[in-house]
UniProtKB/TrEMBL annotation:
<comment type="similarity">
    <text>Belongs to the LytR/CpsA/Psr (LCP) family.</text>
</comment>
<dbReference type="InterPro" id="IPR027381">
    <property type="entry name" value="LytR/CpsA/Psr_C"/>
</dbReference>
<dbReference type="InterPro" id="IPR050922">
    <property type="entry name" value="LytR/CpsA/Psr_CW_biosynth"/>
</dbReference>
<feature type="domain" description="Cell envelope-related transcriptional attenuator">
    <location>
        <begin position="113"/>
        <end position="268"/>
    </location>
</feature>
<feature type="region of interest" description="Disordered">
    <location>
        <begin position="67"/>
        <end position="87"/>
    </location>
</feature>
<protein>
    <submittedName>
        <fullName>LytR family transcriptional attenuator</fullName>
    </submittedName>
</protein>
<feature type="domain" description="LytR/CpsA/Psr regulator C-terminal">
    <location>
        <begin position="379"/>
        <end position="463"/>
    </location>
</feature>
<feature type="compositionally biased region" description="Polar residues">
    <location>
        <begin position="67"/>
        <end position="82"/>
    </location>
</feature>
<dbReference type="Pfam" id="PF03816">
    <property type="entry name" value="LytR_cpsA_psr"/>
</dbReference>
<dbReference type="InterPro" id="IPR004474">
    <property type="entry name" value="LytR_CpsA_psr"/>
</dbReference>
<dbReference type="Pfam" id="PF13399">
    <property type="entry name" value="LytR_C"/>
</dbReference>
Length: 470
């Protein structure tokens, strides 16, 4: 027995890092099924230690050496440098960006755009999880590249050889747009998806609408009829998840992709399938390592694998940014794009990522306090109104309402008031936008945990003309 484990240890050390990640995950899948059966998952997760995380960022990041505010830079700039994710503490929410690449670009050997963008988030405290899909034509700010379709972020990162390449720039772009921290990314190619599904004997799906598919790689078209149960192999399952030609277009496709992920999870959890699946690991681990790119380390992959399998299916929710949350438009280059409606997307985000506390739409104010006060947002005021006293007067009023104003600075004149959100705080944002009459188009999600504040308000000439402050 001692020699057996010694041989296993030597083989494991010889594997590359990605192989170790997925080898560990598959072993965990087998172990967790037994663990869950004997109610031991709780004991395992309770032993996870919480690491000390860095403290709050300093205010100086918002100001120059003279104590005055710096205006945002324009034009192309270098994307933020990539850093290795902090080890997961076992209790904080974890969010992963799942990326699939455009098949036509990939097949032609060109630098690909992303074709699928989905956030997977897990709350280990409340034992909940969610999936949130983003349409590829969303018109967003890409760090360092101005505005573009969100699927261009991966292309830009790869084309300009930025730190972390396409996956990292895509992660930064989605993180800034949605306004929540995204720790990890996972990029999968098509053949890897097919191989994984085939190794578990296919997935069981019931379409909610008729879908005409052609098996990936070639084959005759066939119609999967709504309400009928099918067991799809990898190539057919991938075709089902990629099909766009239904009434809901990309939104329908996003829902089918989420359905496929849950079907795969359900298949893995069937105990009778696991021994066969585990026995095939030596034959598929090389394919997995070459077809998947991720910044997730081995320890975190194992912990998250345990947690994901221990969740109750009823506690896994699904969300899609749909056509009611965007405006169909045309870009300056004549491309069809989807312009986000910020209020609606923020509401969806808060629903998906709420884990109790004041971010939840259903949050209740504590005794003697308001939801705005409970959020304890740190607000910076940039006074570009043309009225030199308005910054201080606005600060005094907000302070009297229980809002913490941590700095007031003068900037160049701007006609319209703008709100930039660095870190959540939806109730404070709603209060400020209502008070100052700020339109949705002038409320920007600019997630940045190093900003030194939660919200920055740039006072414009409209606030100088219309405010009712004393």
């Amino acid at each position: 027995m001692k020699n057996f484990f010694k041989r296993i240890s030597l083989k494991f050390k010889a594997m590359d890092s990605l192989t170790k990640i997925f080898f560990s995950l598959f072993v965990v899948l087998a172990l967790v099924t037994g663990v869950v059966a004997f109610n031991s998952v709780r004991n395992l997760t309770s032993t996870m230690t919480i690491l000390d995380l860095p403290g709050a960022p300093v205010l100086e990041n918002l100001l120059n050496n003279n104590g005055t505010a710096e205006s945002p830079s324009s034009g192309m700039s270098q994307s933020a440098a990539v850093s290795t994710p902090e080890p997961w503490d076992g209790s904080s929410r974890v969010t992963i960006l799942l990326l699939g690449l455009d098949y036509n670009d990939w097949r032609a050997g060109q630098t690909p755009h992303s074709d699928t963008m989905m956030l997977l988030t897990i709350d280990p405290v409340n034992k909940t999880a969610a999936m949130m899909s983003l349409p590829r034509d969303l018109w967003v700010n890409i760090p360092g590249f101005d505005y573009g379709r969100i699927n261009e972020a991966y292309f830009d990162g790869e084309s300009y050889s930025l730190p972390g390449g396409g996956p990292e720039l895509a992660r930064q772009t989605v993180e800034q747009f949605i306004g929540v921290p995204i720790t990890y990314y996972v990029v999968m190619d098509f053949y890897t998806v097919i191989d994984i599904i085939d190794e578990v004997g296919g997935v069981e799906l019931i379409p909610d609408q008729d879908v005409v598919v052609e098996k990936f790689g070639g084959g005759e078209e066939q119609t999967l009829v709504a309400g009928q149960k099918y067991v799809l192999d990898g190539a057919l399952a991938l075709a089902y998840a990629r099909e766009r030609h239904t009434s809901g277009g990309d939104v329908d496709r996003a829902r089918r992709q989420q359905q496929l992920i849950l079907a795969f999870r359900k298949r893995i959890l069937k105990y009778q399938d696991l021994p066969t699946f585990i026995s095939k690991i030596p034959a598929i681990y090389q394919d997995l390592s070459s077809g998947i790119s991720t910044n997730m380390n081995v320890d975190d992959a194992v912990k998250l694998g345990v947690l994901a399998l221990s969740l109750n299916s009823d506690n896994i929710s699904r969300a899609v940014i749909n056509y009611e949350m965007v405006i169909q438009a045309t870009s300056p280059d004549g491309e069809a794009i989807l312009k986000p409606i910020p209020d609606k997307i923020r509401a969806l985000r808060d629903e998906v990522f709420a884990g109790g506390g004041t971010m939840s739409p259903m949050a209740v104010a504590s005794s003697g306090s308001s939801l705005v006060k409970d959020e304890a947002a740190g607000v910076v005021i940039w006074n570009g109104s043309g009225d030199s006293s308005l910054g201080t007067r606005t600060s005094d009023y907000l302070t009297s309402q229980g809002i913490s104003v941590i700095q007031v600075a003068d900037v160049d004149y701007t006609p319209a008031t703008k709100i930039e959100i660095f870190d959540g705080k939806p109730y404070t944002v709603n209060f400020l936008s209502t008070l100052m009459g700020v339109a949705s188009a002038n409320i920007w999600n600019s997630y940045d945990p190093t900003a030194g504040a939660d919200i920055r308000v740039t006072l414009g000439g409209d606030w100088a003309a219309n405010n009712t402050l004393p």
